[in-house]
């Protein structure tokens, strides 16, 4: 009774999602590791799993989510207009996006940096060697500005060729219309994995920007912001505490760690503060796993993307993933 009583006083977005019975989640139009349909047409990837996990936090049902694929140029408009409830779509958190779009970015769930993908036969080892190169870029991304800023800073000319979608840029690169593709390194690794012969391509080692990805929500609904923020944090916290999809049930029954007991709903205060079932985080971890499990199955070294954890490892392992205290 206490749970349903507080749920009725939730913020407008959560109330709308509950009334609709489905979470509407904005994702990429198609990039391996983050969001890409498999051979059966089922969306797979890190962003996709984050959407599914949020549906579990609200409904305890991984299927109660509808995916809306969005291009870089339409993603923020779709969120602002109410077409989607939340955006999990390889979206860098920047000051101007946070202060001018009527949106708020939430907790960082992936750290990246701008790089360049080139064909090995070009013999390029450093980006400054690409004098006069034609570079594929995606419209509406921070990568357009980063590329222009870098080449201007080293006084090297280049020719941009701008596309709406990643698959269009990848096809142009493969066909020889561009000498290089400039984007975030994770997406370049994803593109390379889909090439006819990935070994013919190299993501150059230099990085030219900070690209921290976070979910985006509309301004003016603090309850929804807090739910998405602490949901994302809970998945990272679960990895730090060693809670996995396989052992969550046992740890809920046997752990004496106060942090673990709170996370898994043995004590109800975290769920109550978010107007969710006390078992919300436990249900999420059982359904999709902790952050490390999500990362390894979507873009880890045993996947076609084969991207090492790097900064996306826990802070205790030399990375930048540092979950805020859940107490």
From TrEMBL:
Q: Name one Pfam family in it.
A: SBP_bac_3
What InterPro entries does UniProt report for this protein, alphabetically? Bact_solute-bind_prot3 (IPR051455), SBP_3_CS (IPR018313), Solute-binding_3/MltF_N (IPR001638)
What keyword terms does UniProt attach to this protein?
Signal, Transport
**Entry keyword annotation includes Cell wall biogenesis/degradation:** no
Query: Which intervals hold domain Solute-binding protein family 3/N-terminal?
Result: 22-246
Which domain of life, per UniProt? Bacteria
TM annotation in the entry: none
The family assignment reads: Belongs to the bacterial solute-binding protein 3 family.
Return the protein name. Answer: Amino acid ABC transporter substrate-binding protein
What organism is listed for this UniProt entry? Sediminicoccus rosea
């Amino acid at each position: 009774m206490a749970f349903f009583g507080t749920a009725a006083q939730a913020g407008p977005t959560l109330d709308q999602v509950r009334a609709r019975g489905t979470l509407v989640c904005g994702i990429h139009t198609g990039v391996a590791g983050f969001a890409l349909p498999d051979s059966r047409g089922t969306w797979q990837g890190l962003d996709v799993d984050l959407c599914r996990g949020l549906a579990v936090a609200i409904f305890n049902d991984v299927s109660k989510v509808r995916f809306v694929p969005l291009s870089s140029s339409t993603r923020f408009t779709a969120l602002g207009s109410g077409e989607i409830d939340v955006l999990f779509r390889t979206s860098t958190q920047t000051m101007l996006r946070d202060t001018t779009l009527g949106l708020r970015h939430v907790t960082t769930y992936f750290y990246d940096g701008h790089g360049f993908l080139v064909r090995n036969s070009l013999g390029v080892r450093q980006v400054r060697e690409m004098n006069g190169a034609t570079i594929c870029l995606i419209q509406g991304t921070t990568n357009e500005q980063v590329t222009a800023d870098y080449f201007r800073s080293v006084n090297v000319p280049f020719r941009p060729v701008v596309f709406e979608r990643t698959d269009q840029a990848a096809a142009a690169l493969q066909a020889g219309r561009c000498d290089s593709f400039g984007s975030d390194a994770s997406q370049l690794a994803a593109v390379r994995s889909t090439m006819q012969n990935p070994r013919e391509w190299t993501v150059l080692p230099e990085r030219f920007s900070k690209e921290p990805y976070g979910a985006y929500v509309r301004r003016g609904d603090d309850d929804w912001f807090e739910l998405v923020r602490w949901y994302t944090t809970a998945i990272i916290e679960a990895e730090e505490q060693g809670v996995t999809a396989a052992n969550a049930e046992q740890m809920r029954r046997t752990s004496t760690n106060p942090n673990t007991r709170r996370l898994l709903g043995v004590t109800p205060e975290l769920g109550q503060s978010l107007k969710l079932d006390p078992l919300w985080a436990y249900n999420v971890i059982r359904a999709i796993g902790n952050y490390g499990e999500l990362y390894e199955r979507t873009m880890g070294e045993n996947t076609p993307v084969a991207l090492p954890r790097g900064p996306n490892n826990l802070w205790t392992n030399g990375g930048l993933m540092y979950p805020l205290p859940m107490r």
